[in-house]
């Protein structure tokens, strides 16, 4: 009897505590929990929610709580262990026990050592298969959440406009409808179906972040962070629709403003973008997460603010809720309140948005991450098979003269695999590994597929961007001794230095970055002496198959004219070599389609397909070097390969196509 009374008293006390602290009651309405928690917070605690620290800094910098924590770039199981310790500190050792949002990069895989690496975003767009990308995003969420991650800084809803721009590889394509469909499918897979997420984000799912808002992918001269010189009409008609779909249909809960300025106003101080469009017109219910260091750039890069205090005033007035990666400019918010520059209510509004998302994501009730569970989930064989499937659906057959492909394994006695990316994995920006730590190269894929019945010779031949020709002799010797050459041309992104972390000792690549964030170019031809080596191999008279492993469209005019078979593989993920081999030998029929137009030269940029009627000339009398013409004197304005292009090993035709009705409204589906 005494024991029964004691249990009853404990339960009653717990009930009283929940009623007294409504924000801790999971059964209470979210808005009531937000208001209750906000009413208990000091100004310092509110401001802390508007900042971010590293996950392992909890005990040093998290005494007032914190809005978000950044996952370290280590093994997923180790992240899980740190996550459990840090989140336990915030729940048990801070006054109000507010958990942080643990964030990570998840563009084409959870950014941790050992996680599954999927094909880069530009390859995902080339599948034209939203449901497949939804499945991928769900797997990424599962791997990341096992390490305690709550929010992914993905996906991108930028549209490709200039292939000189290094972050082209992170974009799905040049068409806002395709980008909206693929990106929203990513959100539905990673965050959950909107019918569910409007109530609560489920277990094993992540808050998604739509970025970069807006116009980021059309910088002047193709230079990262450069100004975007477009007006409101172009912004609304081309750059905003994909974001609109993510917010109004997929119910995405976070938006990241872009580094750039749009029509003279930097995105992080743009009331037009962050208040008028995002909240007033679209009724966005999430929170705005600043890009890393972008707020302080208003001071030293855009030079629109004299100091960090002015930056803080402009950013909070525009509608930026959380500053990343650390509380620098928003550290001035208390001073701005004290001197009457801004009211406390402005801070309250930002904090409410952050807390609302935390409650929707179930952070106050989540169990801590477990290293053991993370080891079981991350990098599973089924996840790697999905990566291979996406690669197989993303590879584009650009040319197949005389049906050279598919190759016949039984009749092919020898093959030379040559080129700087033949035996080097290239995953693209925002992936963990720096070298061949995991994954299948094209050389490995071909060797595994043909077995012992075919002799496979290898020569690197040259580097990606260097001018050295010392390897030409070995490459030509391998070519002359073989029945056929597979030449793997391409580039490397900042997985190999800069953004990207791993064991330097296993890195075979010796090339500087040529693509990725901050790696823009002025020439779209193959770099270094790659083309020169290919031309020498072509002179042998042996059949050549060209495989492109890179992050941006290249102007392969010579290659199109001379090489009989060309595959565009982009950055195909950790099973890319297997996928490419299966396509080369006909085990898989290539089905990828270009999500971006390929220009004839850098001088033809831009070449996106949905241009204005007046955008490709008036005279329509294109010239050549032998016979000059008009519009362009020495060439046509057309792309080398257009948006949507892609061959297969079968022939077919469409006929009898009809639309379901004569008129379509803006909300109709075709």
TrEMBL record:
Where the record annotates domain Glycoside hydrolase family 3 N-terminal, the positions are 42-357
Provide one Gene Ontology biological process annotation: glucan catabolic process
**Domain Glycoside hydrolase family 3 C-terminal, residue spans:** 395-649
Record carries keyword Hydrolase: yes
What InterPro entries does the record point to? Cellulose_Degrad_GH3, GH, Glyco_hydro_3_C, Glyco_hydro_3_C_sf, Glyco_hydro_3_N, Glyco_hydro_3_N_sf
Keywords on this record? Answer: Hydrolase
Asked whether the UniProt record includes Hydrolase among its keywords, one would answer: yes
Q: Which GO terms describe its molecular function?
A: beta-glucosidase activity
What protein name applies here?
Answer: Fibronectin type III-like domain-containing protein
- What is the organism lineage in this UniProt record? Bacteria, Pseudomonadati, Bacteroidota, Bacteroidia, Bacteroidales
């Amino acid at each position: 009897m005494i024991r029964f009374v004691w249990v009853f008293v404990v339960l009653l006390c717990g009930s009283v505590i929940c009623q007294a602290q409504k924000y801790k009651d999971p059964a209470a309405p979210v808005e009531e929990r937000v208001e209750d928690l906000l009413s208990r917070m000091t100004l310092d605690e509110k401001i802390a929610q508007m900042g971010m620290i590293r996950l392992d800094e909890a005990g040093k910098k998290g005494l007032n709580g914190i809005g978000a924590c950044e996952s370290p770039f280590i093994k997923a199981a180790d992240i899980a262990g740190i996550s459990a310790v840090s989140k336990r500190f915030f729940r048990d050792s801070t006054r109000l026990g507010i958990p942080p949002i643990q964030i990570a990069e998840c563009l084409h895989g959870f950014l941790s050592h050992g996680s599954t690496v999927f094909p880069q975003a530009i390859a995902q767009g080339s599948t034209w298969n939203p449901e497949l990308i939804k499945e991928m995003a769900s797997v990424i969420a599962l791997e990341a959440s096992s390490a305690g991650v709550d929010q992914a800084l993905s996906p991108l809803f930028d549209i490709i406009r200039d292939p000189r721009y290094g972050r082209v590889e992170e974009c799905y394509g040049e068409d806002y409808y395709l980008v909206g469909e693929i990106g929203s499918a990513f959100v539905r897979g990673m965050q959950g179906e909107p019918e569910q997420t409007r109530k609560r984000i489920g277990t094993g799912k992540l808050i998604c972040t739509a970025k970069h808002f807006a116009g980021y992918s059309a910088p002047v001269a193709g230079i990262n962070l450069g100004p975007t010189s477009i007006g409101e009409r172009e912004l609304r008609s081309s750059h905003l629709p994909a974001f609109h779909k993510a917010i109004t249909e997929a119910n995405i809960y976070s938006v990241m403003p872009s580094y750039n300025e749009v029509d003279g106003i930097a995105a992080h101080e743009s009331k037009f973008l962050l208040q008028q469009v995002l909240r007033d017109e679209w009724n966005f219910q999430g929170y705005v997460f600043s890009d890393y260091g972008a707020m302080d750039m208003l001071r030293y890069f855009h030079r629109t603010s004299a100091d960090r205090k002015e930056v803080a005033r402009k950013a909070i007035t525009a509608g930026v809720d959380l500053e990343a990666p650390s509380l620098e400019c928003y550290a001035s918010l208390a001073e701005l309140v004290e001197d009457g520059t801004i009211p406390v209510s402005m801070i309250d509004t930002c904090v409410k948005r952050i807390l609302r998302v935390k409650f929707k994501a179930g952070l106050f009730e989540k169990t801590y991450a477990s290293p053991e569970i993370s080891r079981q989930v991350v990098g599973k064989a089924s996840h790697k098979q999905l990566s291979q499937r996406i690669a197989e659906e993303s590879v584009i057959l650009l040319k197949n003269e005389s049906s050279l492909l598919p190759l016949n394994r039984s009749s092919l006695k020898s093959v030379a695999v040559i080129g700087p990316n033949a035996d080097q994995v290239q995953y693209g920006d925002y992936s963990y590994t720096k070298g061949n730590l995991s994954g299948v190269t094209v050389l490995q894929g071909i060797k595994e597929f043909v077995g012992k019945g075919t002799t496979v010779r290898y020569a690197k031949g040259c580097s990606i961007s260097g001018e050295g020709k010392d390897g030409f002799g070995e490459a030509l010797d391998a070519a002359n001794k073989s029945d056929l050459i597979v030449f793997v041309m391409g580039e490397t992104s900042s997985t190999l230095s800069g953004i990207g972390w791993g064991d330097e000792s296993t890195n075979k690549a010796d090339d500087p970055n040529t693509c990725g964030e901050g790696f823009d170019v002025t020439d779209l031809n193959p770099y270094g002496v790659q083309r020169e080596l290919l031309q020498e191999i072509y002179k042998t008279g042996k059949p050549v198959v060209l495989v492109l492993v890179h992050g941006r469209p290249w102007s392969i005019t010579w290659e199109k004219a001379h090489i009989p078979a060309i595959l565009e593989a982009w950055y195909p993920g950790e099973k890319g070599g297997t996928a490419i081999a299966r396509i080369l030998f006909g085990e898989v029929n290539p089905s990828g389609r270009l999500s971006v137009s390929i220009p004839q030269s850098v001088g033809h940029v831009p070449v996106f397909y949905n241009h204005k009627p007046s955008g490709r000339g008036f005279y329509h009398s294109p010239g050549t070097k032998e016979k000059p013409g008009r519009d362009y004197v020495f060439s046509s304005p057309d792309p080398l390969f257009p948006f949507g292009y892609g061959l297969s090993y079968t022939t077919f035709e469409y006929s009898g196509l009809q639309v379901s009705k004569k008129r379509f409204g803006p909300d109709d589906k075709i």
